[in-house]
């Protein structure tokens, strides 16, 4: 039995929140646990943000779920035993499948789950339930960048180089990422890059704290990324600043891109993007003349209905500069969720099997069927993506029963009021979580799950570094781990022989075999090897392999080893301002809250800093509506309305309103966002839609 950190003299583990996965040192009892930065962990080097410093308070929080709950005949959630709750979940899932078919049951996972849990959830869907309908909230996070990297490089690993390369990059272009608030300890890498004389170009409609830390800010109109990047490439081609030798020897398809960007001359790009011609040329020259340069994207360009095209445009730029696979250079996606990287590798996505294999690849299916001890034909095919899965509820042949593990879609899904009403119409909803989130509050059965410091498991950070979360405490009495929950449900579904796992390490050993030979190969990663190092980078195919911090230095993961250019035209967003809805609405994050806020809204220090959702507006725009700082305002889009507190700032464009998405109910900005999906990644268009402002909070 693990002792408390106090007894052990401290436990080295990792923060429960973002993809930076800061190393932390825990000490003290659960109710008064002290979180300190772990200076020995090479990523954060002892630094934390306020979310990490205060993460201990969710462990002993008085609102934790400590017993299962079942909705009774009066429609009220009431305490139950584990036996009753698990039996009811298994019975209702089985009955739903018997009546409506296997795919009538859906599973919804999370990029917060450890690799072991994400892997087991995918196996549970395919082996215990035989449903094809499993997807996860990471679809709403970095799926566009993942799809674009796979198209261009044949492989997606958020950063295909280690963070330690960043300070040596002469120029970094960061598009649509606000790391100064989302992962502040990351800023030490950009600060070091600036201190070495480097240039930081930030692309963002807002002059965010990150943009303020840059040497140049390209304040583009929301939804105009592809035009901006095609314009940069136009200037590079025009002025002879592309790397012809690299393009000839390591890529294919440049000529079509070159022909396309000829139509993006700077004056035209200024009209589309709002970025002055002179700034565009200056940025292109900075990039084109640098010996080392990095292009990084965040959710800004990615969370759009053209998110894959946007990301491909940025990748085209990195390739034309000849920088991908070169030291201190390249293209990377700044993954957001804690295990956003590992969560997309091991099978909780609708189109994918463990090891980052494609579910429709016959060799992958053969391999997984053998590892799982089932016949190949028993393995379901691709299912519905996250939003489509939720939107199918209530439709003919749609989802009738849903098991959710660690996700709060009532706050985080686009068009959230519609999603909430669909969830209410389910025949059966079960949610495993550790607080009664807005989604758990709708459930027929709530299963109390263990938290971050209460179970062991691996996470994969934004660099592809596999790290180990250690257990500091036993889960409280009455609480079970997600692995225990899934194994117990599999037993009740008659598939227990495939789920004989007593601890996460056994799941990880099977994951290693399942991933072996795949693009994300973890075969050589062991808990012991991680513990003895600062983590191991995949691919790591054998126990004597050192791991792979840098990808693509010799060749790309495409059949012919060359990276692929993709010509991408600028296209207007699926909804743009008009006379009815005259402004852009864009969404994002603030320093003191994390994702749907299920945890951070319960931390007093964070709640004091960010107690409610604000609507950030330019003073000139606010004046037109008679609004002053601190006023209540109602924002409406074609999906609905929500209320916010006005926060005036010169740092945003006059035509744009920014609202963070961490709150539910009347403050849920995702009640307003547009569910238009990217045709490839199925990413919703969170980052922009057209909005109307109602002064005085009145409709
Ligand atoms: Fe580090 Fe992210 Fe946790 Fe902040 S939220 S302490 S940046 S892992």
Automatic annotation (TrEMBL):
Keyword tags: 4Fe-4S, Iron, Iron-sulfur, Metal-binding
Alphabetized Gene3D superfamilies for the sequence: 2.40.40.20, 3.40.50.740, ADC-like domains, Dimethylsulfoxide Reductase, domain 2
SMART domains for this protein: Molybdop_Fe4S4
Domain 4Fe-4S Mo/W bis-MGD-type: 8-61
CDD domains: MopB_CT_Fdh-Nap-like
One Pfam family linked to the record: Molydop_binding
Domain of life: Bacteria
SUPFAM superfamilies recorded: ADC-like, Formate dehydrogenase/DMSO reductase, domains 1-3
Protein name (record): Molybdopterin oxidoreductase family protein
Organism from which the protein derives: Archangium minus
Lineage of the species this protein comes from: Bacteria, Pseudomonadati, Myxococcota, Myxococcia, Myxococcales
